[in-house]
Amino acid sequence: MRTLDDLLKHGVKGRRILVRSDLNVPLKDGRVAGDGRIRASLPVFVKLLERGARVIVAAHLGRPKGEPDPRYSLGPVADRLAQLLGSPVEFALDTVGTSARLMSAEMKDGELLLLENVRFNPGETSKDDQERLEFARHLAFLTGGEDEGGAFVEDAFGAVHRKHASVYDIATLLPHYCGDLVRDELAVLRQLTGSPDRPYVVVLGGSKVSDKLAVIDSLLPKVDRLLVGGGMCFTFLAAQGHEVGDSLLEPDQTEACRGFLDVRDEDGASKVVLPTDIVVAADVTEHAATSVVPANAIPPGQKGLDIGPDTVRTFGDALAGAKTVFWNGPMGVFEVAPFVAGTRGLAEAVAAVDGLSVVGGGDSAAAVRALKIDAGSFGHISTGGGASLEFLEGKTLPGVAVLEEH
Ligand code: ADP
Ligand code: MG
């Protein structure tokens, strides 16, 4: 796989380089509400711009339905990007239409042009190979093509698990290079699947077990301990025969959970560690009356909404000696104040790990930010939740595979 540095060696001055970035950030009142992904994308832009490249950036935002939708415009992202770069950003009003074609043709060395949301074009996400390829051809055309020095840099880690035109097909049309962000994410994730330093502890939470079955299946043989919290722990508790009241429960997954609970370490102990106490309430509200109950005695009519203090200690102990940690999924409904303590305690324990600690997942990363825990105390916070889980499941990531194959 050729990297951005390989491209730079050939010289990029005057060449139009198409970069696929992950600029899928939260917006509020027409402004960027969290610029983490924009910041993470800057290094590649800067490297190219400093060397006189003409940088065309393709990105998506949200899930528009294949046609322009002002709610999902990248306009606010262009503004924030210009602020962070400290230089003007040209913004095309379409993806591959008149505006994009004129603006890309008129670019000067060291300029950056951001295209409008690629998902405004139905070809981006189409299941029809021809329709996708057609859109990719139009994107490639903006660079002038290979003969005129056009090239493609894949840097949208959060999108590499998608077989989309600007992620996959484009790399079949232009000389292609792996961007720094994708390179760094893959390097960290390979440490988790290769031969991680031990003890290796994985913490999973979040809402749905069914979303995470595949990752549990592939990680359980490799880990020393799997700590389970969040909404998914109740299906495990039910699998042990406990009542879980009105907590989240996926009855069709209890059988799978029972199988996971049977996976044992050399000493015969289950590798899966479940909560011992749970914060319950009748409803998810800011002023809910909460109580802490044993995990095997959740009263009827109550919802389990966070792990309890005893569990935070147990999980903390399991993490204390760990040399490698992967954490995905909040321990409770952290968005609502009475249920944030478990996620806070867990996040602090992960941050204190003296080894490689990796946080993956959109909501988990958001929790770390909302809790104002120093991002630097984690080894790595992945920008791509879905992509990192699919990698850990052992799935092929189309946007990475295409760089290796072609
Ligand atoms: P990530 O995006 O980090 O992969 P998920 O999307 O799997 O995480 O899960 C995040 C969601 O899980 C959060 O919105 C949180 O409110 C919810 N959640 C966590 N614990 C519970 C619980 N006990 N009951 C219901 N929802 C929960
Ligand atoms: Mg999520």
Please provide a written account of the structure.
This protein has helices at 4-10, 36-50, 75-85, 98-105, 129-142, 180-193, 209-219, 233-239, 254-261, 309-320, 341-351, 362-370, 385-392, 398-405, and strands spanning 16-20, 27-28, 31-32, 54-58, 90-91, 112-114, 151-154, 176-178, 200-204, 225-228, 272-273, 277-281, 291-294, 303-307, 324-328, 356-360, 380-381. The chain has 406 residues and is of the alpha/beta class. The protein folds into two domains: 4-178, Phosphoglycerate kinase, N-terminal domain (Rossmann fold, 3-Layer(aba) Sandwich), CATH 3.40.50.1260; 188-393, Rossmann fold (3-Layer(aba) Sandwich), CATH 3.40.50.1260. The strands form four sheets. It has a six-stranded parallel beta sheet, with helices on both faces. A six-stranded parallel beta sheet has the order 11-10-9-15-16-17, sandwiched between helices. A three-stranded antiparallel beta sheet has the order 13-12-14. Helix 11 (341-351) links the parallel strand 15 and strand 16. It is elongated. The model has no long low-confidence stretch (mean pLDDT 96).
